[in-house]
């Protein structure tokens, strides 16, 4: 992780937040909550057995579901505690600790990337374009990138759209939810489908 800035994931929360986050989703899964909405959407957008990057994978729930659906998944997250939980709970995908604004995976390009869980609101302020550029650099030309985050979390959609364009990602669709409810300007959440150039 660069010393120039620290992701908001670390600065906006107190000690123990990662553990709380992991346990929250373990409890939800044990209670039978539907935690696969993001993965269902991405699965519908790609061919069977696609290579998918789970950028900001956290404890691995989205990447694990995509892996269970037959995809080759690599998850990247800056928090080693979240990656440790992903490795413990979801063997199969490859889980990597790295900063999304700087990461480089030395392998063939991905067919798609998913950026769920408000990841763009948790990266370090001022690194959003770098994050999107690094993600785009790992996705093949014509590949899909799906990003979802709350519109009230300090990162505006206008800035996001500008950063996507600079990263070579073209907007194709925008929805208000992961289950494709129509976009509206007052929506509290945005799910954006982008295409790599």
Number of β-strand runs: 7
At CATH level 3, the topology is Rossmann fold
CATH-level-2 architecture = 3-Layer(aba) Sandwich
Number of domains: 1
**Percent of residues in β-strands:** 15-25%
Structural features:
single chain; 197 residues; alpha/beta; Rossmann fold; 7-stranded mixed sheet
Topology readout:
Elements: H1 8-11, H2 17-30, H3 37-45, E1 51-55, H4 61-68, E2 72-77, H5 80-89, E3 94-97, E4 110-115, H6 128-137, E5 139-150, H7 157-166, E6 169-175, E7 189-196
Parallel strand pairs: 1-2, 1-4, 2-3, 4-5
Antiparallel strand pairs: 5-7, 6-7
Helix pairs in contact: 3-4, 6-7
Describe the structure.
The chain is of the alpha/beta class. It contains 7 helices and 7 strands. It has one domain: 3-Layer(aba) Sandwich (Rossmann fold). Strand 2, helix 5 (80-89) and strand 3 (94-97) form a beta-alpha-beta unit. Helix 3 (37-45) crosses helix 4. The chain is globular. It starts with 7 loop residues before the first helix and ends with a strand.
Q: Brief overview, please?
A:
This protein is α/β, with parallel strands linked by helices and 197 residues long.
């Amino acid at each position: 992780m660069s010393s120039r800035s620290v992701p908001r994931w670390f600065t906006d929360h107190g000690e123990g937040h990662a553990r709380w986050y992991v346990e929250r989703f373990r409890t939800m899964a044990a209670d039978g909550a539907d935690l696969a909405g993001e993965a269902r959407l991405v699965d519908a957008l790609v061919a069977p057995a696609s290579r998918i990057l789970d950028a900001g994978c956290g404890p691995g729930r989205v990447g694990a579901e995509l892996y269970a659906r037959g995809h080759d998944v690599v998850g990247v997250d800056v928090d080693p505690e979240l990656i440790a939980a992903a490795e413990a709970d979801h063997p199969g995908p490859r889980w990597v600790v790295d900063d999304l604004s700087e990461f480089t995976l030395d392998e063939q390009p991905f067919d798609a990337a998913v950026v769920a869980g408000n990841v763009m609101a948790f990266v370090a302020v001022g690194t959003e374009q770098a994050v999107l550029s690094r993600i785009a650099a790992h996705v093949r030309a014509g590949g899909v990138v799906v990003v979802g985050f709350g519109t009230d979390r300090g990162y505006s959609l206008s800035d996001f759209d500008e950063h996507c364009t600079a990263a070579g990602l073209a907007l194709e669709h925008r929805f208000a939810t992961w289950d494709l409810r129509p976009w509206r300007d007052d929506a509290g959440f945005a799910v954006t489908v982008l295409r790599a150039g």
